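Notes from hallway chat w/ T.B., transcribed later so I don't forget. T.B. wanted the structure written out for a chain they're using in a teaching module, and asked if we could keep both sequence and structure tokens in one place. Agreed to drop them here.
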Amino acid sequence: MKQKPTELEFEGCTVEEAIKKALDQIKVPRKKIRIEVLSEGEKGLFGMSGAKPAKIRVLLKNEK
């Protein structure tokens, strides 16, 4: 049986959007993951370029 990776990174406009993307992709409940915020993200000035996405690392909790 194929085992899921235990650590993945996701990006979004906000940290919450990145978390939502992660949960949608890996199909596990939020209580079964640990989230590390790598970058909060930054908006570009007046909507101009220079925006940086929020970035998170998702770690699957060990099931015992």
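Follow-up for T.B.: The first strand starts at residue 7 and ends at 12. Might be a good example for the class.
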